Amino acid sequence: MSPLLIPFATIGRSMLGMLRVIGQVTIYAGQAVSHILRPPFYPRELLWQLLQIGWLSLPVVGLTALFTGGALALQIFAGGSRFNAEAVVPQIVAIGIVRELGPVLGGLMVAGRVAAAIAAELGTMKVTEQIDALVTLSTNPLKYLTVPRILAATISLPILVAVGDAIGIFGGYLVSTTRLDFNEAAYLRNTVDFLELWDITSGLIKGAVFGFIVAVMGCYHGMNSGRGAQGVGRATTNAVVSASIMILAANYLLTELFFNA
User: Fold this and answer.
1) Mean pLDDT score of the chain, rounded to an integer?
2) pLDDT along the chain (261 residues), means of 10
3) At what angle do helices 102-110 and 197-223 cross, to 10 degrees?
4) Distance CA 220, CA 142 (A)
């Protein structure tokens, strides 16, 4: 091969590898979705995953939302003071949290915690041949391991986003009323009057999509983990990175779809 063509060949191999992975993930997600409504069902496993993914993620999502709401209020007040527009803090905090920061930060926090945990758990099961044992016992690993996690994440994340939205708005309210001398009643009234139902609904839809992405990427990389500790570690890293990138990309596409005027 000519030395001039080597960089192009490298780029081509990388693109083909990326397209191959995208196709494999798409097929994997399609197979998982096709099994959701087909028996057998595993409600006990689903409830356990709801606890692990939803309830145990609440502290990190809540703390992230609280501090983000407070920091957002300070930033908007500092920026608005340059244009004598300090009064818009309640409105911008509310719409920023509900539409954008609540779903995205919630999704990223859950991706960091849940995608890594799922990939590590399934990767370890593969290394220790527990997945092969399930096949030997005539249990579909996709049905038993993947479907409950995808359902749990898709159900849990919109709830976490809703709770995070409330906590984030409260964080902005707390900072604004204690540090920026806003009137408590006026702040709450401006927040309630400014928000629309679609603002809240769009954020919850984003949360469901992000939860699906987190679970699919965690399960895919865990089920396709390499052998040994190094393979499990690589699968865990790839799950978090790919889930985070896909959340940001999906957020842009959904925002373009929902709010393109």
Assistant:
1) 90
2) 73 84 88 87 92 92 94 89 81 92 93 92 89 86 92 95 94 91 88 89 95 94 85 91 94 90 52
3) 20
4) 10
Cβ atoms 207, 186 nearer than 8 A:
no
Residue whose entry in the numeric block shows the structure tokens 């999502």 = 61
Q: Which helix (H) or strand (E) holds 164?
A: helix 147-178
* Cis before 7? omega within 30: no
**Nearest one of 148, 144, 168, 146 to 156, comparing CA atoms:** 148
**pLDDT tens figures, 95-144:** 999 999 999 999 999 999 999 999 999 999 988 888 888 888 888 888 99
Tell me the pTM.
0.91
Q: In terms of C-beta density within 10 A (0-12 exposed, 13-18 middle, 19 or more buried), how is residue 203 classed?
A: buried
Domain locations in the chain as residue ranges: 1-34, 40-259
- Distance CA(128)–CA(124), nearest Å, equals 6
Predicted pLDDT of residue 15? 87
Which 3-state string (H, E, C) describes 28-57? HHHHHHHCCCCCCCCHHHHHHHHHHHHHHH
**Residue 202: closest CA among 152, 244, 164, 251:** 251
Q: Exposed (0-12), middle (13-18) or buried (19+): which is 216, by Cβ within 10 Å?
A: buried
Q: What percent of the chain shows pLDDT beyond 70?
A: 98
Task: Give the model's pLDDT for residue 261.
Answer: 52
Q: φ, ψ for residue 141 (rounded to 5)?
A: -60, -35
- Token representation of residue 162: 């809703």
